[in-house]
Design a protein that fits this description.
It is built from one helix and six strands. By secondary structure, the protein is mostly beta strands.
């Protein structure tokens, strides 16, 4: 497991889903800037109630920073090029919409 902090912009709206036993979780995709000027897609999943509610306040294009457990992945685009990606199990969410409540 790699602890990480990523920041970027949401690709699409976060979605709430139901798991086994009616447990709720939220998934999202974030486009983050890589060090070489390229962009990286981060697949985000959140299980903790606070993280889920914070993510559900956001919309496509909103800026967000997330911390949690990272897993490196790869995907293939339509041209057959292999691209890097990350999976993140979010433990904290930071956005412009948060308050001190």
């Amino acid at each position: 497991m790699i602890d990480g902090l990523i920041a970027g912009k949401l690709l699409g709206d976060p979605e709430q889903r139901l798991g086994k036993g009616e447990s709720r979780y939220v998934v999202a995709k974030v486009r983050a800037q890589a060090g070489d000027g390229e962009h990286l897609i981060v697949n985000v999943i959140a299980f903790e109630a606070m993280c889920c509610s914070d993510l559900l306040l956001l919309r496509d294009g909103d800026s967000v920073a997330l911390s949690g457990s990272l897993t490196p992945k790869a995907w293939t685009d339509k041209q057959g090029n292999v691209k890097p990606a990350l999976d993140l199990v979010a433990q904290r969410v930071l956005s412009a919409y948060q308050t001190d409540d």
